[in-house]
Design brief:
Layout (H helix, E strand, L loop, with lengths): L5 E10 L2 E10 L12 H14 L1 E5 L3 H5 L2 E2 L2 E2 L9 H4 L4 H8 L9 H12 L3 E7 L16 H5 L3 H11 L3 E7 L32 H17 L6 E5 L7 H5 L1 H11 L4 E2 L48 E4 L17 H13 L3 E6 L9 H17 L17 E8 L2 E8 L8 E4 L5 E6 L6 E5 L2 E5 L10 E8 L12
Parallel strand pairs: 3-6, 3-11, 6-7, 7-8, 8-9, 10-11
Antiparallel strand pairs: 1-2, 4-5, 12-13, 13-18, 14-17, 15-18, 16-17
Bound molecules: ligand H79.
Length: 489
């Protein structure tokens, strides 16, 4: 039995204008490498780079990418996740592989394009699919024959990791525990998890799920031992009726990964319980608590929480059109303005943005995604300090935009992100008690800030210098003072 212990941490809480240091209980015991509890300070140290990063790139790429949302000459759909095409058309794995393998032809140097794109966009990390639900593994596996090594005589994980490292990017592995290929994956054990043969008898007779789990663990071990440091493991996914230790031997799997990668950061998707942050089966069905034994962060999918999640690390993953895996039929692209404001919105609530690309079967990135990411990168170039290394706003969001915050050596900086420039040219901000030292416009320009009766007023600009998001850095004396309910770890 695991022992429960509690760690006392202090958290600032402004009560009726009074600033108090209130001791509160944060749930302690975290499975460390050898099952030893991880302290809050060790956890914070491990999470540091991830919390500072704020912006990562997600890549969905597998056999489905070559199919491009088309099955037998017809669109399998015009919106939604085409990485699910095998399930959408209910193809068994042999039929699927026969159609898809010939269309998956990675061009030389594809990974360098991804890495440079992520870097140009201002991302600090990249999470890519080492295996999606279809079951095709991108590495060179010794324990299976449905992998890039066996079928293409290439190790695509190695190619990608090498390219990411060359750009100084952190490396994350997405790995699907759901598997539509493996002949021992017992899909009859869940009513909620998808499988192309769902509701039908298994063509190869009774399945021994424990044999699939051996394979799953063995491939995970290959991935965390063969490619150097792995910064993130992004598991996907579990259902209320099939999850955790029963479905995946999840605790053991996490400990196996931690044994080889003690600093790795893992998401919460091996589980589907309230303790692991989940409320329901929906992709926005999460609660604002997380016991670290079930993962380090919560994963809202295609969704930005209205307010942040105080005390919990979270990352919104999102597509740029409506599909994760490439589709030639999906034209519903978000504008780069939306992507920039999403990033700012998420940062202002203390979360990370994991923004997806779905490269084609040859590895090339859709031109729409390339253009949008360069536009995000252009904005980031002049405004990076207002995103990377910042924390959630200490006050609720103002009508004109969002706020991100930074505190260094007792000096607080608030970054005022102005989406809608007030018609009278006057920005106001309430709830910030610190005296003002300085106000400056990022990218250059004079602004004036005054504080009177607890309200800060910024003047000096008649029009928005940047139509998407103009940022004013407001330097304040003293530490960051948070209003209740807008705290973060
Ligand atoms: O990998 C991506 C998705 O494939 C996976 N997680 C992200 C990161 C995912 N798992 N579950 N879901 C997404 C939610 C289920 C969405 C569905 Fe659909 C909507 C299933 C059926 C309709 C999207 C559209 C997938 C198939 C069609």
């Amino acid at each position: 039995m695991r022992k429960h212990s509690f760690t006392v941490i202090t958290r600032s809480l402004a009560l009726g204008g009074l600033l108090l240091a209130v001791p509160c209980l944060a749930q302690g015991p975290l499975a460390g490498a050898a099952g030893a509890p991880e302290s809050s300070s060790t956890h914070d140290a491990r999470m540091k780079w991830w919390r500072e990063a704020r912006f990562g790139m997600f890549v969905h790429w597998g056999l489905y990418s070559g199919l491009a949302g088309t099955w037998e000459g017809k669109p399998a759909g015009t919106s939604g996740g085409m990485e699910w095409i095998q399930n959408i058309v209910k193809a068994d794995t042999d039929t699927y592989a026969r159609a898809a393998v010939p269309k998956f032809r990675p061009k030389p140097g594809f990974a360098r394009e991804w890495a440079r794109l992520a870097k140009a966009a201002g991302c600090s990390y990249v999470v890519f699919t080492t295996k999606h639900h279809e079951g095709f593994a991108l590495h060179n596996s010794r324990v299976g024959d449905f992998d890039a090594g066996s079928i293409l005589q290439r190790d695509l994980v190695k190619e990608i990791v090498t390219a990411l490292r060359a750009e100084g990017l952190r490396v994350g592995f997405y790995h699907s525990v759901i598997d539509w290929h493996h002949d021992q994956y017992d899909y009859s054990l869940s009513q909620q998890l998808p499988h192309p043969l769902h509701g039908k008898p298994s063509p190869n007779g009774v399945r021994d799920h424990s044999r699939y789990l051996k394979y799953l663990h063995a491939q995970a071990e290959e991935l965390v031992t063969g490619y150097g440091r792995v910064d993130v493991l992004w598991w996907d996914y579990s259902a209320q009726d099939f999850q955790g230790d029963e479905a995946w031997r999840a605790t053991e799997l996490m400990n196996l990964v931690r044994k080889h990668q003690p600093a790795v950061i893992m998401n919460n998707r091996l589980f589907r319980t309230p303790e692991a942050g989940w409320k329901s089966m929906g992709t926005d069905g999460f609660v604002g608590t997380l016991d670290w034994r079930y993962g380090d962060f919560i994963t809202p999918e295609q969704h930005i929480p209205d307010t942040g999640m105080p005390g919990v690390d979270w990352e919104t993953c999102m597509t740029m059109n409506t599909t994760w895996g490439y589709s030639e039929h999906d034209r519903q692209w978000k504008t780069s303005d939306t992507l920039i404001r999403n990033l700012v919105d998420i940062a202002s609530k203390g979360g990370n943005y994991l923004l997806n690309i779905g490269p084609q079967g040859d590895g090339s990135v859709p031109t729409e995604s390339v253009a949008a990411l360069h536009a995000v990168g252009d904005w980031m170039k002049g405004h990076r300090e207002s995103i990377v290394g910042t924390m959630a706003s200490p006050v609720p969001k103002p009508a004109w935009g969002r706020i991100t915050a930074r505190e260094r050596k007792g000096v607080t900086t608030l970054f005022l992100h102005v989406f809608d420039w007030p018609a009278n040219g006057q920005l106001t901000l309430a709830g910030v008690p610190n005296p003002i030292r300085k106000a400056r416009l990022l990218g250059g320009g004079k602004v004036t800030a005054d504080s009177r009766h607890g309200i800060i007023t910024i003047t000096g600009l008649a029009q928005a210098p940047n139509p998407v998001d103009s940022v004013i850095a407001l330097t304040l004396d003293g530490p960051l003072v948070r209003q209740p309910g807008v705290d973060r770890p």
